[in-house]
Description:
- By secondary structure, this protein is of the alpha/beta class.
- The protein has a single domain (43-191), classed as Double Stranded RNA Binding Domain.
- 36% of the residues lie in helices and 31% in strands.
- It is built from three helices and eight strands.
- Strands 3, 4, 5, 6, 7 and 8 form a six-stranded mixed beta sheet that branches. The protein has a two-stranded antiparallel ribbon with strand order 1-2.
- α2 (71-86) crosses α3.
- The radius of gyration is 26 Å and the shape is flat.
Amino acid sequence: MSRRSWSILSPVNRMAAGFLFLLFLGGCGYQASLEKSPPSSLIKKESEGGPQRLSRISIPVFANKTYEPLIENTVTRRFRQQVIMDGHLKLVSSRSESDMVLEGEVVSFGQTPLSFDIQNVALEYRISLVLRMALKDARSEKILWQKSINPGAADYYVNVDSSLNRAALDRAIDEASKVLAEDTLSDILNLYR
């Protein structure tokens, strides 16, 4: 290598080495964990036997206060899936096995047209869900947290085939339920951090 090409590469090499040094020196602070536990404040003090973790939750089928058939099943399924996927709490099937019970009701369901064709026929709708939720202690029935959740929303396109319209509507309900479940579980866990 000539002296000239070495002088051009030298600053680049020095910068790259400095960058790598800083990168490895700083570290990212990420730690892998194989086991999740509930937040420390989800621990009840017991007079005998020490602390007890509130880590088991049951989610009974939500009540449906709307005219949309079977919407409560979709919403409940999404909430249960979110608890399982998150992993901080253990989902149990019965109230007697649980420490907490998340009760909910679908209070409102609506569809609003978003776009229209030339003949003023709706091409796209936005659905909205409003839920009322309460987290209760399974033993004492004391309300630990409650909230009216306004609204979860998702959009879907209309199709000429009515069975495809129903499938699109069901997907939109599922999508809105997923977002509401994520937000609710996050609120519950943050409440006890």
